[in-house]
Amino acid sequence: MSIQTMSMPVDFLSEEQFSCSICLEIFTNPVSTPCGHSFCQSCITSYWDSRGTACLCPLCKESFHKRPELHINHTLKDITEQFKRMADSSGSPGISTSAQAESSQSPQLSQKMSGGPSRPGELPRGLLKEMKNRFQRTSSSGNLLETSLSSSSSMPSYEASRRRFSASASGPASSTTPQCSKHGLSLDMFCRKDQMCVCSLCAEGDHHGHSVVPARREMTVKKSQLGVMEEEVQSLITAREKKIEEIQMSLVNIQVNTQHEVEITESMFRAMISSLERSQAEMLEVVQVGRAAAELRSQALIRDLQLEITELRKRSSTLSQLSQTPDHLSFFKTYPALSAGPPLKSWTDVTLTPDPTAGVVLKNVTQIVDKLQDELRKLPQICLQSAMESSIKQEPRLCKMQDYALDVTLDRDSAHPRLMISEDCKQVYCSDRHQAVMDTPERFDRVVCVLGCQGFSSGRHYWEVYVGEKTDWDLGVANRSVNRKGKISVSPANGYWLLSLRENNEFAFRASPSMPIYPNPKPQKVGIYIDYEKGQVSFYNADTMALIYTNVYFFTETIYPCFSPCTNKSGKNEGPLVICPIRPA
Fold first, then answer.
1. Which residue among 83, 312, 445, 524 has its CA within the 20 to 30 Å range from the CA of 38?
2. Are 92 and 3 in contact (CB under 8 A)?
3. Where are the extended beta strands (E) located within 383-535?
4. What is the separation of C-alpha 250 from the centre of its chain, rounded to a whole number of angstroms?
């Protein structure tokens, strides 16, 4: 069979299709993640080991709450090995090791071995050697290498492959390559246990039994991790920049509110001053009216007295004339009228008494002014004390939330087939078997979730759910239009606002990425508070009313309470979620 005939199937394949995106080399023991991407088993394991508990896909960045159990994708492995064999068979069969060495020294011989210049659509002429070198480094069995490259039949395949790798990859170091101070070879290997670069002889000696990989390959893995770390740092920077904007906006609101309060206070004091001035005018008018009344009364008394004085003076003049008359007839005729005396008013008890309002106005005004001044002196202290009390008191918030208690029941038509709901629709747990229920558009078919019957598109609402000692659960709210079929990506952007517990102690608010939460103590009962107009979703420890987490978003449609007891995990998480009655305030 000619070389051209053997290379025909290979023309439809490319190295990228069989390369790991972490180490950028041909797959070795390929495994697939739940999101559908494939990597070398050692590459993805090393990648996840370096990230602690967080497991992300290096390509699509999908997060897994629990590290997936990876199994070798035998189909992809067989295809990869077939690709290697096809690429291997495209070269000249039967070429000896010495001939390969000569071909590396002679460009003409290399061109003959590779079948001449490559034509469009065919594999490059250097692919055969490159594939052999890569497969030699990554293969642990060595069976294929023995067939095509082994130079000693008495040496085990792994040992032959290792020594060939040592001879080619860890040869004498060049002038620009760092050297091993002990063996003088290139430091092109990396010991994951000791976290240091070593040569091939060090890997066989001091680092024997350790996880030793090619240094460049490990550097590629670490660089991919640096990219993810950089994205996380940028996310942290963005979150803090948003927090700065939030603080600045809060400061602006405080300044606006303060200015508004100053203007209202000044207006109220101006109104109070105006009122005081009016009261002053009215009180002065009362005093002036009293004085005017006294003046009028005094004038009347004086006028009466002056009239009587005039009459008495006339009588005095008449008496004087009578006493001087010599005619006794005229005297006796006039005397009887003058001897009786004129009718006069008794002025002994007549006095000009003060007006009844005199002194009363001053007394009352003095008392009111003293009381007002005392209250004004207390006003700053009263305002400061009220502000402090409103900032530390929690009882009013508790009463508010209880005032918005919502009687939640579970919607059987939305429940996953494995969920068992009590007769009163207040409890739910996950069983081991599916129930015979109709698969409607409203029913969750993959995620063990159930919605509440009560939806709302306005107002404030609060309910409590007993979680007890469950190791896993999800609680919150969801939009009416959320996806309920197949795999679900839970986040506010997808219409879910859920607080989650995983593995008995890992609390998080489900977002992209998830927000870790560390409540202390662990809640036995969770309270969910919704303010639809504000877009606020808050979670509380219902026993202590301590805030666990608050998220603010903009609701655009009807939302429903959402519950997931999660799978029972062989009895470890079999307890139900129980919707509790709200205690009266």
1. 445
2. yes
3. 419-421, 427-430, 450-451, 460-466, 473-479, 496-502, 506-509, 515-517, 525-531
4. 17
CA 494 remoteness from chain centre = 15
Handedness of CA 401, 403, 582, 499 (dihedral sign): negative
Which letter, b or e, does each residue of 68-100 get, where b requires 16 or more Cβ atoms within 10 Å of its Cβ? eebeebeebbebbbebbebbbbbbeeeeeeeeb
Written in H, E and C, the secondary structure of 61-80 is CCEECCCCCCCECHHHHHHH
Residue 108: strand, helix, or coil: helix
DSSP 8-state class, residue 30: E
Tell me the chain's radius of gyration from C-alpha atoms. 51
- pLDDT tens, residue order, the chain (585 aa): 443 434 444 444 566 677 887 877 788 889 988 888 888 988 888 888 876 666 888 888 788 878 888 888 888 888 888 877 776 665 433 333 333 433 343 344 334 334 444 443 344 444 444 444 544 444 433 343 333 333 333 333 334 444 444 444 444 444 466 888 888 888 889 998 889 999 988 988 888 888 889 988 888 888 877 877 888 889 889 989 999 998 999 899 889 888 988 988 888 888 888 888 888 888 888 888 888 888 888 898 899 889 888 888 888 888 888 888 888 888 888 778 777 777 777 888 788 777 666 677 788 888 888 888 888 887 777 776 666 555 444 444 445 677 889 999 999 999 999 999 999 999 999 998 888 899 898 999 999 999 999 999 999 999 999 999 999 999 999 999 999 998 888 999 899 999 999 998 899 999 888 888 888 889 999 999 999 988 899 999 998 888 899 888 888 899 999 999 999 888 889 899 999 998 765
Cα distance between residue 97 and residue 103, in whole Å = 10
SS3 547: strand
